[in-house]
Amino acid sequence: MLDLVFSNNxxxxxxxxxxxxxxxxxxxxxxxxxxxxxxxxxxxxIFIFSKAN
Length: 53
Hints:
Number of strands: 2
Order of helices and strands: EE
Strand content: 25-35%
Structural class: mainly beta
Strand order of the largest sheet: 1-2
Number of helices: 0
Oligomer: single chain
Radius of gyration: 23 Å
Shape: elongated
């Protein structure tokens, strides 16, 4: 089993360590300082052709 953490901005990664897990396997624990960015979409224009002149 292979646990990987990829990042293209190393300044966001606070800590990364391996913690003993089940049997001889270890678990990777990584703390990353990020805030999700939500992009609001503009409301779509819906044309009502039945009400057109």
